[in-house]
Amino acid sequence: MFKVLKHSNNHLKISANGYTLMLIAQLSDFEKIDSKNIDGFVIDTTKPKEAYKIITHLKVKTTLKESLKPLFVPSHNLLPKFITCHTDGVLDQSQLAITMERVAVITSKIKDVKLTNTDNYETMVTARVLGFLYTRNQLLTPIVHRQSNIGYTYPVLSLLYKENEALAMLQLAQKIAANGWGNAKLKDHIHLCKGCHGNYFNFREVCGACNSIDISPQDMIHHFVCAHVAPATDFKKEEELSCPKCDKHLRHIGIDYDKPSTIYHCNSCSHEFQQPKMEALCMDCETINGLDELIQQPILELSITQKGEQLLFNTQSKTITKDNNLSIENKCTEALFQIILKQEINRIKTHNCKSVYAQIHLNNPTIKSLNSIAKQAFHNELLQIINSYLLESDIIASESFELYHLLLPNTSFKELERLENIEYNVQKLLTDNIENQPNQVQIKIHNITGSDEVGELISG
Ligand SMILES: [Zn+2]
Ligand SMILES: [Zn+2]
Ligand SMILES: [Zn+2]
Q: Backbone phi, then psi, for 103, in 5-degree steps?
Protein backbone atom coordinates (compact mmCIF):
# COMPACT_ATOMS: atom_id res chain seq x y z
CA MET A 1 0.00 0.00 0.00
CA PHE A 2 2.64 2.56 0.99
CA LYS A 3 6.32 2.83 0.70
CA VAL A 4 8.85 4.88 2.58
CA LEU A 5 11.36 6.16 0.08
CA LYS A 6 14.88 6.94 1.04
CA HIS A 7 15.92 10.08 -0.80
CA SER A 8 19.40 10.65 -2.09
CA ASN A 9 19.83 13.55 0.34
CA ASN A 10 18.78 11.43 3.31
CA HIS A 11 15.27 12.83 3.55
CA LEU A 12 12.41 10.50 4.04
CA LYS A 13 9.18 10.65 2.19
CA ILE A 14 6.01 8.77 2.87
CA SER A 15 3.90 8.17 -0.22
CA ALA A 16 0.50 6.53 -0.58
CA ASN A 17 -2.69 7.00 -2.59
CA GLY A 18 -0.92 9.50 -4.84
CA TYR A 19 0.05 11.85 -2.01
CA THR A 20 3.48 12.46 -0.55
CA LEU A 21 4.42 13.62 2.95
CA MET A 22 7.88 14.83 3.84
CA LEU A 23 9.59 14.07 7.16
CA ILE A 24 11.11 17.19 8.69
CA ALA A 25 13.59 16.73 11.53
CA GLN A 26 14.99 20.25 11.62
CA LEU A 27 14.34 23.66 10.15
CA SER A 28 17.08 23.39 7.54
CA ASP A 29 15.27 20.42 5.95
CA PHE A 30 12.83 22.88 4.37
CA GLU A 31 15.65 24.33 2.28
CA LYS A 32 16.46 20.99 0.72
CA ILE A 33 13.04 20.22 -0.71
CA ASP A 34 10.94 21.38 -3.57
CA SER A 35 7.75 21.86 -1.62
CA LYS A 36 5.67 22.05 -4.82
CA ASN A 37 5.77 18.26 -5.05
CA ILE A 38 5.04 17.74 -1.37
CA ASP A 39 1.44 17.51 -0.14
CA GLY A 40 2.21 17.73 3.57
CA PHE A 41 4.77 17.34 6.32
CA VAL A 42 5.52 15.12 9.29
CA ILE A 43 7.51 16.51 12.21
CA ASP A 44 10.29 14.03 12.82
CA THR A 45 11.84 15.20 16.07
CA THR A 46 11.14 14.59 19.75
CA LYS A 47 12.64 17.95 20.76
CA PRO A 48 9.82 20.39 21.52
CA LYS A 49 11.97 23.45 20.67
CA GLU A 50 12.86 22.11 17.23
CA ALA A 51 9.27 21.02 16.59
CA TYR A 52 8.05 24.50 17.56
CA LYS A 53 10.51 26.09 15.12
CA ILE A 54 9.30 23.82 12.31
CA ILE A 55 5.65 24.61 13.01
CA THR A 56 6.29 28.36 13.27
CA HIS A 57 8.21 28.34 10.00
CA LEU A 58 5.43 26.56 8.17
CA LYS A 59 2.51 28.48 9.65
CA VAL A 60 4.05 31.96 9.74
CA LYS A 61 6.87 32.35 7.25
CA THR A 62 5.46 30.67 4.14
CA THR A 63 2.76 31.69 1.68
CA LEU A 64 -0.87 31.34 2.74
CA LYS A 65 -1.43 28.14 0.71
CA GLU A 66 1.84 26.58 1.85
CA SER A 67 0.92 27.35 5.47
CA LEU A 68 -2.30 25.37 5.10
CA LYS A 69 -0.65 22.10 4.00
CA PRO A 70 -1.24 19.11 6.31
CA LEU A 71 1.24 18.76 9.17
CA PHE A 72 1.41 15.65 11.35
CA VAL A 73 3.38 14.39 14.33
CA PRO A 74 4.39 10.70 14.42
CA SER A 75 2.51 8.44 16.85
CA HIS A 76 5.61 7.68 18.95
CA ASN A 77 6.29 11.38 19.32
CA LEU A 78 4.99 12.64 22.66
CA LEU A 79 5.14 16.38 22.03
CA PRO A 80 3.20 18.65 24.42
CA LYS A 81 -0.32 19.74 23.52
CA PHE A 82 0.59 23.42 23.09
CA ILE A 83 2.72 22.25 20.15
CA THR A 84 0.49 19.56 18.66
CA CYS A 85 -2.58 21.85 18.76
CA HIS A 86 -1.18 23.66 15.69
CA THR A 87 -0.88 20.38 13.74
CA ASP A 88 -3.26 17.84 12.23
CA GLY A 89 -2.47 15.35 14.97
CA VAL A 90 -0.79 12.00 14.99
CA LEU A 91 0.26 10.10 11.89
CA ASP A 92 -0.34 6.43 12.52
CA GLN A 93 1.70 4.45 9.98
CA SER A 94 -0.56 1.41 10.44
CA GLN A 95 -3.57 3.52 9.41
CA LEU A 96 -1.87 5.39 6.59
CA ALA A 97 -4.82 5.13 4.21
CA ILE A 98 -7.02 7.06 6.64
CA THR A 99 -4.37 9.76 7.05
CA MET A 100 -3.99 10.09 3.28
CA GLU A 101 -7.75 10.48 2.85
CA ARG A 102 -7.48 13.40 5.26
CA VAL A 103 -4.57 14.81 3.20
CA ALA A 104 -6.72 14.50 0.07
CA VAL A 105 -9.59 16.47 1.65
CA ILE A 106 -7.31 19.24 2.98
CA THR A 107 -5.44 19.46 -0.36
CA SER A 108 -8.64 19.86 -2.34
CA LYS A 109 -9.91 22.51 0.08
CA ILE A 110 -6.62 24.44 -0.17
CA LYS A 111 -7.35 24.69 -3.93
CA ASP A 112 -10.53 26.65 -3.09
CA VAL A 113 -8.52 29.32 -1.32
CA LYS A 114 -7.94 32.11 -3.82
CA LEU A 115 -6.91 34.91 -1.48
CA THR A 116 -3.28 35.80 -2.06
CA ASN A 117 -0.73 37.20 0.35
CA THR A 118 -1.27 40.70 1.61
CA ASP A 119 0.86 43.38 3.25
CA ASN A 120 -1.72 44.15 5.92
CA TYR A 121 -0.78 42.11 8.98
CA GLU A 122 -4.29 41.75 10.40
CA THR A 123 -5.60 40.62 7.01
CA MET A 124 -2.79 38.09 6.71
CA VAL A 125 -3.47 36.70 10.19
CA THR A 126 -7.21 36.57 9.56
CA ALA A 127 -6.64 34.68 6.29
CA ARG A 128 -4.32 32.14 7.94
CA VAL A 129 -6.74 31.49 10.78
CA LEU A 130 -9.84 31.31 8.58
CA GLY A 131 -7.92 29.18 6.05
CA PHE A 132 -6.99 26.74 8.81
CA LEU A 133 -10.62 26.49 9.97
CA TYR A 134 -11.97 26.06 6.45
CA THR A 135 -9.48 23.44 5.22
CA ARG A 136 -9.73 21.43 8.47
CA ASN A 137 -13.45 21.87 8.98
CA GLN A 138 -12.87 22.39 12.67
CA LEU A 139 -13.22 24.91 15.50
CA LEU A 140 -10.52 27.27 16.68
CA THR A 141 -10.47 26.06 20.28
CA PRO A 142 -8.02 27.70 22.69
CA ILE A 143 -6.30 25.24 25.02
CA VAL A 144 -5.21 25.94 28.60
CA HIS A 145 -1.48 26.43 28.71
CA ARG A 146 0.31 27.25 31.95
CA GLN A 147 3.45 28.58 30.21
CA SER A 148 1.50 31.05 28.08
CA ASN A 149 1.42 34.65 29.34
CA ILE A 150 -2.37 34.61 29.26
CA GLY A 151 -2.93 31.00 30.31
CA TYR A 152 -4.27 29.98 26.88
CA THR A 153 -2.86 29.07 23.50
CA TYR A 154 -4.85 29.34 20.27
CA PRO A 155 -4.05 26.92 17.45
CA VAL A 156 -2.23 28.82 14.65
CA LEU A 157 -3.37 32.28 15.86
CA SER A 158 -0.96 32.24 18.83
CA LEU A 159 1.95 31.56 16.47
CA LEU A 160 1.28 34.85 14.69
CA TYR A 161 1.70 37.09 17.75
CA LYS A 162 4.55 37.52 20.20
CA GLU A 163 3.98 36.66 23.87
CA ASN A 164 3.68 40.35 24.78
CA GLU A 165 1.13 40.99 22.01
CA ALA A 166 -1.57 38.81 23.56
CA LEU A 167 -4.04 41.69 23.82
CA ALA A 168 -3.80 42.42 20.09
CA MET A 169 -4.27 38.70 19.42
CA LEU A 170 -7.39 38.45 21.58
CA GLN A 171 -8.78 41.58 19.95
CA LEU A 172 -8.24 40.09 16.49
CA ALA A 173 -10.28 37.03 17.52
CA GLN A 174 -13.06 39.42 18.59
CA LYS A 175 -12.75 41.31 15.32
CA ILE A 176 -13.14 38.13 13.26
CA ALA A 177 -16.41 37.52 15.10
CA ALA A 178 -17.52 41.18 14.96
CA ASN A 179 -17.02 41.26 11.19
CA GLY A 180 -19.16 38.16 10.77
CA TRP A 181 -16.30 35.98 9.45
CA GLY A 182 -16.53 33.68 12.46
CA ASN A 183 -19.06 32.58 15.03
CA ALA A 184 -17.83 33.03 18.58
CA LYS A 185 -18.57 30.98 21.67
CA LEU A 186 -17.41 32.37 25.00
CA LYS A 187 -15.07 29.90 26.73
CA ASP A 188 -13.66 32.05 29.52
CA HIS A 189 -12.92 35.54 30.76
CA ILE A 190 -9.35 36.42 31.64
CA HIS A 191 -7.85 39.46 33.34
CA LEU A 192 -4.65 41.03 32.11
CA CYS A 193 -2.03 43.18 33.82
CA LYS A 194 -2.19 46.85 32.83
CA GLY A 195 1.61 46.84 32.58
CA CYS A 196 2.50 43.79 30.51
CA HIS A 197 -0.84 42.12 29.57
CA GLY A 198 0.16 38.92 31.34
CA ASN A 199 -2.23 37.17 33.70
CA TYR A 200 -0.10 35.53 36.36
CA PHE A 201 -1.03 37.39 39.55
CA ASN A 202 -0.70 37.22 43.30
CA PHE A 203 -4.01 38.49 44.67
CA ARG A 204 -3.66 39.99 48.14
CA GLU A 205 -5.48 42.04 50.75
CA VAL A 206 -3.98 45.40 51.69
CA CYS A 207 -4.67 48.41 53.92
CA GLY A 208 -7.01 50.86 52.20
CA ALA A 209 -5.15 53.82 53.69
CA CYS A 210 -1.48 53.06 53.06
CA ASN A 211 -1.59 49.96 50.78
CA SER A 212 0.57 47.95 53.20
CA ILE A 213 0.16 44.18 53.04
CA ASP A 214 1.00 43.96 56.77
CA ILE A 215 -2.55 43.80 58.09
CA SER A 216 -4.06 41.50 60.71
CA PRO A 217 -7.66 40.45 61.10
CA GLN A 218 -9.14 40.68 64.58
CA ASP A 219 -12.47 39.52 65.98
CA MET A 220 -14.76 42.22 67.34
CA ILE A 221 -16.31 41.39 70.70
CA HIS A 222 -19.70 42.60 71.83
CA HIS A 223 -20.22 42.39 75.61
CA PHE A 224 -24.00 41.94 76.16
CA VAL A 225 -24.05 43.16 79.80
CA CYS A 226 -22.67 46.64 79.13
CA ALA A 227 -23.08 46.74 75.33
CA HIS A 228 -19.37 47.52 74.86
CA VAL A 229 -18.00 46.65 71.40
CA ALA A 230 -14.23 46.58 70.77
CA PRO A 231 -11.49 44.47 69.13
CA ALA A 232 -10.67 41.21 70.96
CA THR A 233 -7.22 42.49 71.96
CA ASP A 234 -8.88 45.13 74.17
CA PHE A 235 -10.61 42.33 76.11
CA LYS A 236 -7.53 40.11 76.56
CA LYS A 237 -6.11 39.82 80.05
CA GLU A 238 -3.49 37.05 80.04
CA GLU A 239 -5.43 33.91 79.04
CA GLU A 240 -8.84 35.31 79.91
CA LEU A 241 -11.25 37.80 78.45
CA SER A 242 -12.21 40.71 80.59
CA CYS A 243 -14.30 43.74 79.60
CA PRO A 244 -12.29 46.99 79.58
CA LYS A 245 -15.47 49.00 80.24
CA CYS A 246 -17.20 47.14 83.10
CA ASP A 247 -14.30 44.91 84.26
CA LYS A 248 -16.45 41.75 84.22
CA HIS A 249 -15.10 38.39 83.04
CA LEU A 250 -16.42 37.13 79.74
CA ARG A 251 -17.26 33.43 80.03
CA HIS A 252 -19.50 31.92 77.36
CA ILE A 253 -19.74 33.04 73.76
CA GLY A 254 -23.40 33.33 72.82
CA ILE A 255 -24.47 33.83 76.46
CA ASP A 256 -22.61 36.89 77.76
CA TYR A 257 -20.81 38.00 74.60
CA ASP A 258 -20.55 37.35 70.85
CA LYS A 259 -18.27 38.14 67.91
CA PRO A 260 -20.39 40.16 65.47
CA SER A 261 -17.68 40.87 62.90
CA THR A 262 -14.00 40.96 61.98
CA ILE A 263 -11.95 44.11 61.85
CA TYR A 264 -8.56 44.59 60.23
CA HIS A 265 -5.69 46.43 61.81
CA CYS A 266 -2.84 47.84 59.70
CA ASN A 267 0.46 47.18 61.41
CA SER A 268 2.06 49.85 59.31
CA CYS A 269 -0.21 52.88 59.78
CA SER A 270 -2.57 51.63 62.55
CA HIS A 271 -5.61 52.23 60.35
CA GLU A 272 -8.58 50.01 61.32
CA PHE A 273 -11.11 48.93 58.75
CA GLN A 274 -13.72 46.27 57.99
CA GLN A 275 -13.04 45.59 54.30
CA PRO A 276 -9.44 45.21 53.17
CA LYS A 277 -8.63 46.39 49.66
CA MET A 278 -7.77 43.69 47.09
CA GLU A 279 -4.95 44.15 44.63
CA ALA A 280 -3.21 41.97 42.05
CA LEU A 281 0.58 41.91 41.91
CA CYS A 282 1.79 40.88 38.44
CA MET A 283 4.32 38.07 38.83
CA ASP A 284 5.89 38.96 35.48
CA CYS A 285 6.45 42.72 35.56
CA GLU A 286 5.70 43.46 39.26
CA THR A 287 3.04 46.06 38.41
CA ILE A 288 0.42 46.39 41.14
CA ASN A 289 -3.06 46.38 39.62
CA GLY A 290 -6.20 47.51 41.39
CA LEU A 291 -8.98 45.02 40.63
CA ASP A 292 -10.79 47.65 38.55
CA GLU A 293 -7.60 48.24 36.55
CA LEU A 294 -7.30 44.66 35.30
CA ILE A 295 -8.09 44.42 31.59
CA GLN A 296 -10.88 41.87 31.14
CA GLN A 297 -10.82 39.96 27.86
CA PRO A 298 -12.97 37.12 26.54
CA ILE A 299 -11.45 33.82 25.43
CA LEU A 300 -13.47 32.86 22.37
CA GLU A 301 -13.84 29.64 20.46
CA LEU A 302 -14.34 30.45 16.78
CA SER A 303 -15.90 28.64 13.86
CA ILE A 304 -15.86 29.93 10.28
CA THR A 305 -19.05 31.37 8.75
CA GLN A 306 -20.20 31.47 5.13
CA LYS A 307 -19.04 35.09 5.01
CA GLY A 308 -15.63 34.01 6.28
CA GLU A 309 -15.38 31.33 3.59
CA GLN A 310 -16.30 33.84 0.89
CA LEU A 311 -13.39 35.95 2.05
CA LEU A 312 -11.04 33.06 1.28
CA PHE A 313 -12.61 32.30 -2.11
CA ASN A 314 -12.16 35.86 -3.38
CA THR A 315 -8.99 36.53 -5.31
CA GLN A 316 -8.42 40.01 -3.96
CA SER A 317 -7.11 40.51 -0.48
CA LYS A 318 -8.62 44.00 -0.78
CA THR A 319 -11.94 42.39 0.04
CA ILE A 320 -11.21 42.73 3.72
CA THR A 321 -10.46 46.41 3.40
CA LYS A 322 -13.49 46.96 1.17
CA ASP A 323 -15.67 45.16 3.61
CA ASN A 324 -14.42 47.34 6.41
CA ASN A 325 -15.03 50.49 4.42
CA LEU A 326 -18.59 49.49 3.75
CA SER A 327 -19.15 48.81 7.40
CA ILE A 328 -18.31 52.38 8.44
CA GLU A 329 -22.03 53.02 8.49
CA ASN A 330 -21.64 54.86 11.76
CA LYS A 331 -19.62 57.63 10.13
CA CYS A 332 -21.23 60.95 9.38
CA THR A 333 -20.17 64.51 8.58
CA GLU A 334 -19.23 66.87 11.38
CA ALA A 335 -22.28 69.02 10.65
CA LEU A 336 -24.64 66.06 11.00
CA PHE A 337 -22.78 64.94 14.11
CA GLN A 338 -23.47 68.30 15.75
CA ILE A 339 -27.21 67.93 15.04
CA ILE A 340 -27.28 64.39 16.47
CA LEU A 341 -25.28 65.51 19.51
CA LYS A 342 -27.74 68.35 20.11
CA GLN A 343 -30.62 65.85 20.01
CA GLU A 344 -28.76 63.60 22.43
CA ILE A 345 -28.32 66.49 24.89
CA ASN A 346 -32.07 67.16 24.67
CA ARG A 347 -32.84 63.46 25.15
CA ILE A 348 -30.69 63.41 28.29
CA LYS A 349 -32.40 66.56 29.58
CA THR A 350 -35.81 64.87 29.39
CA HIS A 351 -34.99 61.20 29.99
CA ASN A 352 -32.04 61.39 32.37
CA CYS A 353 -30.05 58.68 30.58
CA LYS A 354 -26.27 58.26 30.37
CA SER A 355 -24.26 58.92 27.21
CA VAL A 356 -20.65 59.72 26.53
CA TYR A 357 -19.00 62.12 24.12
CA ALA A 358 -15.40 61.27 23.35
CA GLN A 359 -12.80 63.10 21.37
CA ILE A 360 -9.72 61.34 20.01
CA HIS A 361 -6.85 63.60 19.21
CA LEU A 362 -3.69 62.49 17.44
CA ASN A 363 -0.63 64.59 17.73
CA ASN A 364 1.88 63.34 15.26
CA PRO A 365 4.22 65.60 13.31
CA THR A 366 5.32 62.71 11.07
CA ILE A 367 1.82 62.08 9.71
CA LYS A 368 1.28 65.82 9.33
CA SER A 369 4.29 65.97 7.03
CA LEU A 370 3.06 63.13 4.75
CA ASN A 371 1.67 63.89 1.32
CA SER A 372 -2.11 64.06 0.98
CA ILE A 373 -2.51 60.54 -0.50
CA ALA A 374 -0.49 58.90 2.28
CA LYS A 375 -2.32 61.02 4.84
CA GLN A 376 -5.67 59.88 3.43
CA ALA A 377 -4.57 56.23 3.56
CA PHE A 378 -3.58 56.67 7.20
CA HIS A 379 -6.87 58.38 7.96
CA ASN A 380 -8.82 55.50 6.39
CA GLU A 381 -6.88 52.91 8.33
CA LEU A 382 -7.42 54.79 11.59
CA LEU A 383 -11.15 55.10 10.87
CA GLN A 384 -11.35 51.35 10.25
CA ILE A 385 -9.59 50.54 13.50
CA ILE A 386 -11.77 52.90 15.53
CA ASN A 387 -14.92 51.76 13.79
CA SER A 388 -14.21 48.08 14.34
CA TYR A 389 -14.59 48.58 18.10
CA LEU A 390 -17.72 50.73 17.99
CA LEU A 391 -21.20 49.46 18.62
CA GLU A 392 -23.86 49.81 15.96
CA SER A 393 -25.48 52.62 17.93
CA ASP A 394 -22.25 54.65 18.24
CA ILE A 395 -21.61 57.54 15.88
CA ILE A 396 -18.30 58.87 14.60
CA ALA A 397 -17.33 61.99 12.68
CA SER A 398 -13.86 62.84 11.48
CA GLU A 399 -12.75 65.27 8.83
CA SER A 400 -9.02 64.98 9.38
CA PHE A 401 -6.73 62.24 10.64
CA GLU A 402 -6.01 64.31 13.75
CA LEU A 403 -9.49 64.57 15.23
CA TYR A 404 -12.34 62.09 15.81
CA HIS A 405 -15.67 62.89 17.49
CA LEU A 406 -17.52 59.96 19.01
CA LEU A 407 -21.00 59.76 20.46
CA LEU A 408 -21.60 56.65 22.57
CA PRO A 409 -25.30 56.61 23.49
CA ASN A 410 -26.53 54.74 26.59
CA THR A 411 -23.01 54.32 27.86
CA SER A 412 -21.64 55.09 31.30
CA PHE A 413 -18.04 55.74 32.32
CA LYS A 414 -17.85 52.12 33.46
CA GLU A 415 -18.57 50.83 29.96
CA LEU A 416 -15.71 52.40 28.05
CA GLU A 417 -13.75 49.25 27.27
CA ARG A 418 -14.13 50.00 23.57
CA LEU A 419 -12.27 53.28 24.02
CA GLU A 420 -9.43 51.41 25.76
CA ASN A 421 -9.28 49.00 22.81
CA ILE A 422 -9.27 51.90 20.37
CA GLU A 423 -6.53 53.73 22.26
CA TYR A 424 -4.36 50.61 22.42
CA ASN A 425 -4.74 49.74 18.75
CA VAL A 426 -4.40 53.27 17.37
CA GLN A 427 -1.28 53.71 19.48
CA LYS A 428 -0.01 50.37 18.18
CA LEU A 429 -0.63 51.36 14.56
CA LEU A 430 1.31 54.58 15.13
CA THR A 431 4.25 52.99 16.93
CA ASP A 432 4.42 50.13 14.41
CA ASN A 433 4.62 52.55 11.51
CA ILE A 434 6.31 55.61 12.90
CA GLU A 435 9.26 55.85 15.25
CA ASN A 436 8.23 55.91 18.86
CA GLN A 437 6.80 59.21 19.98
CA PRO A 438 5.05 59.12 23.35
CA ASN A 439 1.53 60.41 24.04
CA GLN A 440 0.46 60.39 20.43
CA VAL A 441 -3.11 59.47 21.22
CA GLN A 442 -5.23 61.56 23.54
CA ILE A 443 -8.79 60.59 24.36
CA LYS A 444 -11.01 63.06 26.19
CA ILE A 445 -14.25 61.72 27.55
CA HIS A 446 -17.26 63.63 28.77
CA ASN A 447 -20.42 62.44 30.47
CA ILE A 448 -23.11 64.29 28.55
CA THR A 449 -25.49 66.35 30.70
CA GLY A 450 -28.68 68.26 29.80
CA SER A 451 -26.90 71.58 30.18
CA ASP A 452 -24.07 70.88 27.72
CA GLU A 453 -23.50 73.12 24.71
CA VAL A 454 -22.60 71.43 21.40
CA GLY A 455 -20.06 74.09 20.43
CA GLU A 456 -18.16 73.82 23.71
CA LEU A 457 -18.07 70.01 23.59
CA ILE A 458 -16.84 69.80 20.01
CA SER A 459 -14.10 72.34 20.55
CA GLY A 460 -12.86 70.21 23.45
ZN1 LIG B 1 2.53 42.69 34.35
ZN1 LIG C 1 -2.02 51.12 56.59
ZN1 LIG D 1 -18.68 45.09 79.73
A: -60, -40
